[in-house]
Amino acid sequence: MKIGELARATGVNVRLLRYYEEQGLLSSHRTEGGHRQYSADAPATVARIRTLLAAGLPTKVIRELMPCFIGEGPELDACVLDHLRTQLADLDTRINELQQARASLSDLLDASTRALATAGR
């Protein structure tokens, strides 16, 4: 399957497919003419990459997880579940930090608005 065919089959543009390959997430071989040729399972691989990206995982982590898929779906082997739990905990921490920052910003905005209203501005 050529890169254009893979792009059409997955809805992922050619540029992203090249990026996935550069990151070691997707592999191809070159034809004699220098064109990328992907295997028949490439659409499933791209779907897995997209699933992991949607979960907020960086490409470095995705590269480590790619050999750990079970069957044709998005399910991963038990040996990586602790890694996924760690990623989830990190995400929860970042969400909490963002919520705190948002509350602080909201308080600052409210206090400034009240001060301006009191000053007649």
TrEMBL record:
Pfam families: MerR_1 (PF13411)
Boundaries of every HTH merR-type domain copy: 1-68
Coiled coil: 81-115
PROSITE patterns hit by this protein: HTH_MERR_1, HTH_MERR_2
Gene Ontology MF annotations: DNA binding; DNA-binding transcription factor activity
CDD domains the UniProt entry points to: HTH_MerR-like_sg3
Keyword annotations of the record: Coiled coil, DNA-binding
Descriptive protein name: DNA-binding transcriptional MerR regulator
Organism: Thermomonospora cellulosilytica
